[in-house]
Amino acid sequence: MADAERKKGIRRTTLIVVAIAVAFYLGFIMLGVLRS
Amino acid sequence: MTTAVADAHDSHDEHGPAKGIGRWLFSTNHKDIGTMYLVFSLTMFFIGGAMALVIRSELAVPGLQFVHPEFFNSMTTMHALIMVFGAVMPAFVGLANWMIPLMIGAPDMALPRMNNWSFWILPVAFGILLSTLLMPGGAPASGWTMYPPLVLQTGDAFPFLIFSVHLMGISSIMGAINVIVTIINMRAPEMTLLRMPMFVWTWLITAYLLIAVMPVLAGAVTMLLTDQFFGTSFFLAAGGGDPVMFQHIFWFFGHPEVYIMILPAFGVVSEIIPTFARKKLFGHDSMVYAAASIAFLSFIVWAHHMFTVGMPLTGQMFFMFATMLIAVPTGVKVFNWVATMWRGAMTFETPMLFSLAFVFLFTIGGFSGLMLAIAPADIQYHDTYFVVAHFHYVLVPGSVFAIMAGAYYWLPKWTGHMYNEKLGKLHFWTSTIFVNLTFFPMHFLGLAGMPRRIPDYSTQFTDFNTIASIGAIGFGLSQLLFVGVVLSAWKGSKATDRVWEGSHGLEWTVPSPAPYHTWETPPKARVAGEAFE
Questions:
Q1: Which of B104, B108, B177, B205 to mutate to test the interface with A (most CBs of A within 10 A)?
Q2: The whole model's pTM is what?
């Protein structure tokens, strides 16, 4: 994998997993808001 | 093979580690950070272990001996939080930091500065948590599950507990991000996904579990914080909230957390058994699918921790059968380890001994888990010492033994020297005898009805409690031998590059000790191809 392509891949994967983590965090708080 | 690899490293000799404390404070090197994680984990193992000894000393005979009941509850809570988040998880992150880049042919983790940050958050988190021991009202005493409304009765320690749990979560999430990004993007050219070693595979799956569930725990404790200080009623029945909802959310995190602590252990054992059986791992691909299946199932079984709370019959049936289903992929793994050993030319060095004990003793924990999965029976077992016996079999001769196995297995690669094998075997045998002496009698105590989380008990439970306490003291002292073994590895005979006769994989093609920088030039296809097979 070329360096530039690898850097792009690292950025893309990081963004995806961060988005998953934030979605779970906010999603479960939203669940609490909707249930209470 | 080794020569070709060594050549690639020669040109980087000038890039040594920084001098002094700065090497550790500002390090972005995966090996240094791995070492720091492992040392931190061992320190926490001894602190959490000392708390376990307070618990077992109090329970050695009936009556109140040494501590007040409130402090006893703080000890059970702190012991659990420290062992789960401070000892077991950081130990596996340490092994991941050291070994994943070496195994996949990457020069370092993909996000090295974040790697430094995710480690250094941990001592702060545990400094805060431990400081609560000195606060008015004492340390948290509501159990590691932090159920409301009980946890909201914690004294001044409450916000510090919430903050430290948030920090632990942030650290774990950043570590998991690093593992996923590294494995997806930094593999050597020939290292296809299904060629990856099992340790790498199990860590990739574990990292996804972490990404999904640590934010859920963070969300739960955030809501606890707002309930306590900002007038919300997420979990307060008086304000229209639902305390049982906390239990659902907590265990949606808590059950996958169990697999976060055991999947990397499966990976370690899957590396070691083939080496000392001198055979390839039986059914590599089926092991990968089994680990992925376990991870998936771990998301749909959480309510088996809450059968006594009350739920519709269909709910009980679903969670009971889904839990039992986990035995299938777990059975695949145990079968494959046994099949790997079948007709192998086995030798029994310390890493192999710990791995064999893992297979037997973890399976005992698995079977008692199956018993607990049966909803009608769980009504009886719930909150008894049977549960304590079950999860300690999974976590001590399970996760901790696998960590020990991994440490012995890779120690020569890390230090460049062989450890003292006699001392290692002594550590193994004393640990194995005492761990069973500690936790096996707890099955009988639980079946006889002894509740967990109490500082005193009926006299009928005395004998098994005394045996368990003797075992715990023996197990604690045995772990001091491990420190001796680690120190012996600085004076032992020089380790070869391959270290073990049956070892295979990229990590064994680099010199021992592994140079400060490795794989700055990705391994050559031919070298990689041989190592992968």
A1: B177
A2: 0.95
